[in-house]
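Cont'd.
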Amino acid sequence: MSAVEQQAGARGSGRALAIAGGIGRFLLIAATTYLGLLAVTFFIGRVIPIDPVLAVLGDRAPESVVERTRREMGLDLPLIEQFWIYIKAALNGDFGTSVLTTNPVMADIRRVFPATIELATVGTLIGTVLGIPLGVLAAVKRGSLADQFVRVVGLVGYSVPIFWLALLALVLFYAKLQWVAFPGRIDIVYQYTFTPVTGFYLLDSALQGQWDVFWDVFRHIVLPGALLGYFSLAYISRMTRSFMLNELSQEYVVAARAKGLSETRIIWGHALRNAAVPMVTVIALSYAGLLEGSVLTETVFSWPGIGLYITDSLQNADMNAVLGGTIVIGSVFIAINLFSDLLYKLLDPRTKVR
Amino acid sequence: MMMEKIALRSRMWLAGAALSAFVAASPAFAVTPADTLVEGFAIDDIISVDPAEAFELSTAEVTGNTYDLLIRIDLNDTSKVKGDLAESWTISDDGLVYTFKLKPGLKFASGNPITAADVAYSFERVVKLDLSPAFIINQFGITGDNVAEKAKAVDDTTFQFTVDKSYAPSFVLNCLSSTVGSVVDSKLVKEHAVAVTPDADHKWDNDFGNGWMKTGYAGSGPFKLREWKANEAVVMERNDNYWGEKPKLARVIYRHMKESSAQRLALQAGDIDVARNLEPNDLNAIADNKDLATVSAPKGTVWYISLNQKNEKLAKPEVRQAFKYLVDYDALGSTILKGIGEIHQTFLPKGDLGELDENPFKLDVAKAKELLEKAGLKDGFSVTMDVRNGQPTTAMAESIQQTAAQAGVKIEIIPGDGKQTLTKYRARNHDIYIGQWGQDYFDPNSNAQTFVSNPDNSDDGKTKTLAWRNAWDIPELTKQTEAALLEKDTAKRAAMYQELQKKALEESPFVIIHQQLEVAGLRANLKDFKLGPSFDTNFVSQVSKE
């Protein structure tokens, strides 16, 4: 909940802090965090006891080739010099070339990231649309059967390993019932007839009016999307429930009831509106969590996103790709955090005028 | 209140109806297109599809199906070769000059004619690029400076290859049958060559099309490579210009799938025709399914544990022998390795010239104890073993840990990522290493050279063979390995390798355990799907669907 704490700190720092100034300060924080991220990933990448040349050449290359490649990769330079070269390149958006794909890492990421974003978006949509009403329901009917149900759903989502649930879901919905499609994002039949533009297949196929492709893409995304959605739902409903409980015990609710407002109006019109402010952070964090946390889901579903990209790279000790991927995800995480903080400020009237 | 309940019920009914509509709308059983073979395959090891650069197992299969060679391993008798693009060949009396005559009227997939000049250029770029597999050609004394003379076109259909010593012809021919000898379309490759500035590491003014060939294609095999998308798919299409029998299917797609269980599900559902990376539990699970079948073939890969001779306890000859009695081969063969490996204790895999089918060792704790006592280690000792994560490595290591403990040898397992244990192994910092070795080319010299040859045991030795990695200093065996290379009589040559293997059984720090079986699960409607004796002979052109 660091974002929430940060927010609390920001709120306390006084009325003089205008939104514009806030943005500046956040950018500064972002820049420092980003530099720290670069340094940490670089040094982790260099201290792990794996010879990077091995990743490029495999175990069977003759010694002369190994030596030459070591020079070509600049690994014979002092560590600090390597870091300097790395930083300079990274600030230009150049994370080197992936050993595995032979493409520049940034080009790879541009290719795989939309797959992850699309999946995470579907997951978060499901999680939000279902999670908030469930959370509200649980809070309003506190202690009831519905509440217990929501809490169990939340607990299971919190504790069950995702890959296990994913495999189970595959066995049921794909292997047994044949309701959904697998593996990957799209059937091979379409793989060579469909040209994506934005990289978001649902959007692309709809824009091009290729409804059979859209249906196929939908059948591919629905299961991993629903699974991520479930995990997002578990988190969002749990948080909604606790925010709502907090709001419902406030004096303004008592006042509203005394005034004779309808219960629906109190819950949806007043309590939820107030709870919505911290919910923004929760949803944003959940979204960011799905972006970086989809590694296992992507592996199980052979989903060609950034999670699978990093996993494959890691298993092949393709450090450029791993570092590049980590930094991109880290940056997006930072950006989403900052964005939600800003949004928080806009939504919460108290941060404007005090 | 009552009304609410009814409303709720009708809403639930509506939801149910929507759900069944969804079920009804979903298509029936999935099938792959009738003219396309779809394989689920972990292809993340592919880093380049240029035959001059590729040295990975998945790539070997792609290259084997999309490129032609001068000569190929004869699948009916893998200790021999047969002509591919070459119609015939002769060897000069001094054993130095190999002359190949090409078949007439050959064409590349691009439509360009195949000439001896293409063959010469293929060798030139391999040698001058000097990438991972180049040593297979370089070892005949060929360098960038003399390749123009040593591998040259005499006329349009005659190619001459000159070696520096009077090697065993079987050795030279076997090496030329490896994927590095693939013939590329010189016209096409030259069009894509990029100028580079020469430096100490690369003395030439262009990249021989390597930049383009990493993902490009310039071959003449039964299939042409349409596309390789890293970590997604490899797509091959029928090459209508192929000189031999044309493939039955129009298209083959290798779809990257990492997980064994996911491959199994997709195979069962019919979304893929072949699953290539099934683990034993998934193989068991499909055993009873009548719509599915499995095929397997022994590959030229042996699994072993090795004892670092820098550790003075492990360096004692009796200790080396004792370890060979401390592996429960029978139990491993019937459980962990069932279906994926065959017990095999000699360093040449089955199918090689000079293979020795002898498995003298069995689990014998009493014998091992006796040997340890002779070595002055009656009470046993402690030692570490570096084990890469994953199966069957971990299960094998645990089994050996148990049986060794019975003789008082306490093995501490250090788990690690594959590349991590390998880094340590290559630096000779291990005690015991467990791993596999796949031969580089289909000739006994490949494994002999690494298991029983170590020209320079110093830490900065230039030839870092497996014997070197385990600091096993063997001047005598090294000489014998070199002598076997020059033996022209094939039968005598085979006998020399058998001799080397017997010595290795007696003395070496290698406890060789099994030879890998490659296994695939497939849909029963596939006809003639076979796995070959090596990764570059997993041909798919004969496959059809019923």
